[in-house]
Specification:
- The protein has 120 residues and is α/β, with parallel strands linked by helices.
- 15% of the residues lie in helices and 40% in strands.
Length: 120
């Protein structure tokens, strides 16, 4: 895992956060869905730059999850993903007809041209 020195000290890691716009979008979706406690956020190895974000709605907190909370929404991050996204702010933006989550990650060194993957 390039860019991260192991063993990684989870105790000294920074929080993962989200903007009010992102939290409002998640809360709205969870209300329509009828269940859920927040978002599970992580990374996976893929794409032309090496890593990509993965997002899914979460119904329960896992045993190993790091739990961060912003505007009443829980963000659950697995220990292996945390070093790559610590300090990240999740936003939700609308630009013209396009809308979606935006990852403001201070750890990103480079991104692919299509915006699907990144390198730390």
């Amino acid at each position: 895992m390039a860019g991260i020195s192991w063993p990684y000290d989870l105790e000294s890691s920074m929080a993962v956060s989200m903007t009010a716009a992102a939290a409002n979008h998640v809360q709205s979706y969870l209300a329509k869905r009828g269940k859920g406690i927040g978002l599970r956020l992580g990374v996976r190895t893929t794409g032309c730059s090496g890593m990509a974000y993965k997002l899914e709605y979460a119904d329960v907190v896992g045993n190993d999850d790091n739990v961060f909370e912003a505007f009443g929404v829980k963000l659950l991050v697995d220990p292996k993903s945390l070093p790559y996204i610590e300090g990240m702010e999740l936003d939700y933006t609308r630009e013209g007809l396009n809308e979606g989550f935006k990852f403001n990650n201070p750890n990103v060194k480079d991104e692919c041209g299509c915006g699907e993957s990144f390198t730390v």
